[in-house]
Request: fold
Amino acid sequence: MKADSNKFPELNKTKFENRGKEFKLGVPVTNAITIGNSVAVGFGDGTVRIFRSGQISEVIKAHSGVVLSISKDGEDILTGGDDGRFLKISLDGEIKEIANFGSRWVDHVTAYNGSLVCTSGNIVYLWMPNKKEPKLLEHESTIGGVAFDSKGRRLAVSRYGGVTLWKKDYSNKWSSSNLIWKGSHNKVIFSNDDRFLVTSMQENQLHFWRLKDKTDSFMSGYGAKVKSFAFVYDSKFLVTSGSNEAICWPFDGNGPEGRKPICLPYVGNKPVTFVEPFPNENAIFTGLSDGSVFLSEIEKSTNTIIIRSFTESEVTTIAVTEDCSSILIGDIGGNILWTSIWDEEEK
Amino acid sequence: MGETNKQVPVTVLTGFLGAGKTTLLNRILTEQHGKKYAVIVNEFGEQGIDNDLVVDADEEVFEMNNGCICCTVRGDLIRILSGLMKRADKLDAIIVETTGLADPAPVAQTFFVDQDVADRTKLDAIVTVADAVHLSTQLSDHHEAEEQIAFADVVLLNKIDLVDESGLEVVKERIKKINPFAKIIHTTKCGVSLSEILNLDAFNLKRILDTEPDFLTSDHDHEHDDDVTSLSFVSDTPLNMEKFQDWFSKLLQTKGQDILRTKGILDFTGENDRYVFQGVHMLMDASPMGKWPEGKERSSRLVFIGRNLESMNLKEGFENCKSA
Reply:
């Protein structure tokens, strides 16, 4: 792995690029997860690399195919691959295989306080802390996404026809209820205050349920599938990709029904491919299909700064360290920028 | 369906159980070709398939909420194709094996409907393996068998060593009646050169200009109403574009479920370009395809493959589109 500082013409570089490190790895970046002040990055060749301030780890040969999904369990990285393996990887690079499904892919992984979850096909495999054998939660169709709520008591599983909401009672028994909406549901997330559940769909739209009364509605008008979406820290906004602007839906009060989103435009008018909220602020990092990345305040769209200039490869991941000191940007062309966010940053 | 050379070609392999799909797959994978293929299988396990890139999937047919009543797609395919496109090593081709009873329409429609799939991959051809001994019975008993023939760009008529010459002719006639476009290749044990089934670019609109349908002259006496058949129309009189669009879009909207495939080259009054289109049920891919060749007669040709075609007044509808 070599740093290639000649990648971008000097003139076009931002101050973030100038003071950061750029890597031209040539392997698609598929996903990333922040663990404290480190960022673990998954790649299309099955490797995982860990970025820390001042140092970058060796290449960890985790999967033989694509790292399809990444999450964390405490200080450990969890990955699922198209080689059918579900792995736990320590920050030192030690790999432990939790399960192996052979030619069946591990599509999604997540965890909550030692409870580990992966999905393969239509089954959720759930390992309770210190249990060797997983509990199997079966669904009618292949699982599009999986998410714990903030307390780890509910597990949302999106699929064709809606979401199965699994609930754990105090004796650790899981029971399910269904949130129904026609069509195929992909990624699913809870709002940070657990009041809403949002899914992206095969159609160019998002669906949401208000959990206290199970009312639901949709957010549409997108030109493409919404692949990246997240709530800002206080769940006041849901920020989304899928358009040539970052679309930010208001989720305070009763949610977005009957209200208009805030649309943040960017230079070049290219499709937004990745959004990542800025921790503890109503601000977002927005990655575009041309590789450029911006930071904007949602309610003051004039306050937009460019973080990375274009690379001609769509942004596939943005991760911010827990202390907000550094940001990692990765794209489909295998270009990575790892840089400090603040001018006064001293390492 | 765009056309960039970055798109990985996808070959769809259909055919009834026992026709020889797995034999063909193993042949493709074991031949020394120096290419990297990914194979998506659905009946894994019966006979081993020796390839490090075999993906096991369950066929999942999803309805789309796009106002198109017969529009279904293969959800598993969308997921797997987008996963394969994240790989660091580039694939030369992807082969999708369908189950014996699968309807090929959702597979084909996936490439029309899903933008990510259409951006990164392209439907190369539908190859149907048919058992020369049992095809006639299967066609009578299972509508899926008819659909697999109707959608085929290539029919691999396998096990021909087990039928006599007259039996072979009967089967071939049956296939041509359903699908005059399909190229029929005779094989025993699926012995076929890979160049005849891979990288055909059969769904490229440009290719439609080169394919001459092989119509039977025989009458259509013995059909049941729900048999799949084909009808074709030719006109030397230019068509009125507005009238044609009006008629054709209404036809697909109301009869799209029965119309399996359409193809056509159209000559519109006042237009210098040839218009080429193809459709799968209600979905269409159409484009002007350059000027008519000089010195050659301009004419419109239109082909339908489907059920109950006789009841759709297609001839009358087409005649009405001619410019006055």
Remarks:
- Chain A touches chain B through 30 residues (CB under 8 Å).
- The CA atoms of residues 190 and 197 of chain A lie 5 Å apart.
- Helices of chain A lie at 15-19.
